[in-house]
Amino acid sequence: MAGNNAGDRSNDEVDCDLGWSIGMLMRHYQVQVQACVADLPRGARGYQLLYTVMYKDLPNQLQMAEYLGIDRSVLPYVIDDLVEAGLVERRPDQADRRARKVVVTPLGAETFERLQARVTAAEDAVLAALEPTEQTQFRSVLSRLARQARDATAPGGRPAAEEEL
Questions:
Q1: Contact by Cβ (8 Å): 21, 13
Q2: DSSP conformational letter for 113
């Protein structure tokens, strides 16, 4: 952009192709994090599920699938692999005996804590171009944008119709 007066910032910082920037950041994130969770069943997806079971109190698999953005027909396979590894188990839901709640096992909690330290280090490497206060701000803004994107997308992964918003 000609005539752009942005002080000390380079044109690369001022002129942002959002799609390219998100894509590059996502690729860097995936490379860094996948290396940390490669031994976990289903890799990064398994890690996300383990995180969700540890920190979110979602009552059923449908809500877990919607939260994670995973097709509900795929989620049982991810859970099955984590069950087989002894990291989570399905228990009858106290509120609805017909439903099964996915809960973390002691081995799953130990595994998650070990992996979380590695993932945090990888995330720090991804965000290394930012000062610590910028990293905190970026995470906050990114979380807000992610929630907006989730809320604007109907179950099933298609954009929500105007009347659904």
A1: no
A2: H
Residues in the chain: 165
Q: Collapsing DSSP states into helix, strand and coil, what is residue 74?
A: coil
Given a cut of 50, the residues of the chain with pLDDT beneath it are: 1-6, 160-165
Per the confidence metrics, is the pTM higher than 0.90? no
Cα-based distances in Å from 67 to 20, 58, 142, 149, 161: 25, 9, 16, 11, 19
| Three-state secondary structure call for residue 30 | helix
Digit-coded pLDDT (tens) for 13-55: 667 899 999 999 999 999 999 999 999 999 999 999 999 999 9
Cα 103–chain centre separation: 18
Cα separation, 161 vs 153, in Å, equals 9
| Gap between the Cα atoms of 127 and 74, Å rounded | 31
User: What pLDDT was estimated at residue 60?
Assistant: 85
Distance, first Cα to last Cα, the chain: 36
Three-state SS for 22?
A: helix
Token pair of 97 as six digits: 């005996």
